[in-house]
Design brief:
Number of strands of chain B: 10
Oligomer: heterodimer
Number of helices of chain A: 0
Structural class of chain B: mainly beta
Strand content of chain A: over 45%
Order of helices and strands of chain A: EEEEEEEEEEEE
Distance between the termini of chain A: 41 Å
Distance between the termini of chain B: 33 Å
Number of strands of chain A: 12
Shape of chain B: globular
Chain lengths: ~120, ~120
């Protein structure tokens, strides 16, 4: 079945440090891949996505590249800010037939950035 | 409304009682999802509705859990004979139509506490 595995947290960084949050997936079809973010006290929102192999999603300085050969979608940011402190979720949706499947999420990684 | 609306925002119930959680998706969205978010467990998929297709109920944890979607719009998640382990935040999301890469929009969730 489909699944997403992301690195355990919490991740604690100083401001301007480089961030990587690892995510790997297992899927039976041709998945689209997502990163969602949940800021303190707020609902889940889409951060970025990629719909096919070698696509790069980017938003707010974050990037992730869809690597089919390694079944990975690692999240990176060159210089984190205190405002990036949040919980980050990697997710996939698999497409086959007409109904497709729901979004499947990883367990989430908590990022804490200090000044 | 402008976004996904869930009610109530908080619910405290006694063990053994039944509860109903409501989700109003974004108008026109054909796909609707329910998830459960517990500390340390990430986002657990419960059930997925897509248009007129049979719902994907593969994530429902027991037969005490059920959900329906009336008229392709509002959805109700029902938990019968609640147990303390049912305490969690229940999230609803909707998306425009299922195609690869479609963004899901989340509600603020219902925090359920079983005492």
């Amino acid at each position: 079945g489909n699944s997403v595995t992301q690195m355990e947290g919490p991740v604690t960084l100083s401001e301007e440090a480089f961030l990587t949050i690892n995510c790997t997936y297992t899927a039976t079809g041709y998945p689209s891949l997502f990163w969602y973010v949940q800021y303190p006290g707020e609902g889940l929102q889409l951060l970025l996505k990629a719909t096919k192999a070698d696509d790069k999603g980017s938003n707010k300085g974050f990037e992730a590249t869809y690597r089919k050969e390694t079944t990975s979608f690692h999240l990176e940011k060159g210089s984190v800010q205190v405002s990036d402190s949040a919980v980050y979720f990697c997710a996939l949706s698999d497409v086959y037939g007409q109904a497709g499947t729901a979004l499947i999420f990883g367990k989430g990684t908590t990022l804490s950035v200090s000044s | 409304g402008a976004g996904v609306s869930q009610s109530p925002s908080n619910k405290v119930t006694e063990k053994g009682k039944d509860v109903e959680l409501r989700c109003d998706p974004i108008s026109g969205h054909t796909a609707l999802y329910w998830y459960r978010q517990s500390l340390g467990q990430g986002l657990e998929f419960l059930i997925y509705f897509q248009g007129n297709s049979a719902p994907d109920k593969s994530g429902l944890p027991s037969d005490r859990f059920s959900a329906e979607r009336t008229g392709g719009s509002v959805s109700t998640l029902t938990i019968q004979r609640t147990q303390q382990e049912d305490s969690a935040v229940y999230l609803c999301a909707s998306s425009l139509a299922f195609q690869g890469g479609t963004e899901a929009f989340f509600g603020q969730g219902t925090r359920l506490t079983v005492v």
